[in-house]
Amino acid sequence: MDNLKLISDYYHFSEVFDRLIYSKKNQNNKKNSFENLKKEIEKLSTIYNKNINNLVFADGSKNANLMIIGEAPGSVEEKMQKPFVGDAGKLLDKMLSSINLLRKDTYITNVVNFRPPDNRKPTTTEINQFFPLIKKHVDLIKPKIILLLGSTALETFFNKKYSITKIRGTWLEIQINNKIYDCLPSFHPAFLLRQPDQKKFSWVDLKLIRDRLAKINSVYG
Ligand code: URA
Known about the structure:
This protein is of the alpha/beta class. It has helices at 2-42, 75-80, 87-98, 124-141, 150-158, 164-167, 189-194, 199-220, and strands at 59-60, 66-70, 107-110, 145-149, 172-176, 179-186. Helix 1 (2-42) packs antiparallel against helix 4 (124-141).
């Protein structure tokens, strides 16, 4: 009897040990993948030929269900090396808190990870250089939902012209590496700062996100 208990304890502990090693390996692999992605993005650092070309990689939790993708960093973001920390970012924080989310519960990045000169929109050629990298980024996070802020993020993933006014608030699907992601296009907070009367539509979209996340949490716990 004692022997049997010893054997069963042995198998139990070796299984726990194997699982610990496996999860540590997975964490290390994931860490390496993020570091590799950062290095790949860094290779594009000369794209804008400016004095400062700080990489603005991402902010938030790598385990987030919600990934938020904007266009490109502005000057405050470039200085702080964090996405969405200027005026548009402050509004984004408020938008998130209106549906009881903190930025640390989400994962935030941009299509383009360096600030274009004079805060201009990135060109199609520039976006095409970053596109494989933002796809890798999504593939590493594997979010349950993607919130695409503004027409640049939307058109990057769907490779066609859209009217953000018409399509916002409509769930769309994108496939990356054999996985389908649910995406919601919505107004960019910088646009909402210019046109505050449009916030009512943004609120509709935020509630869609809130309800979808609640459903996901009830299924995945
Ligand atoms: N606008 C964006 O699209 N991204 C940022 O990080 C800041 C402003």
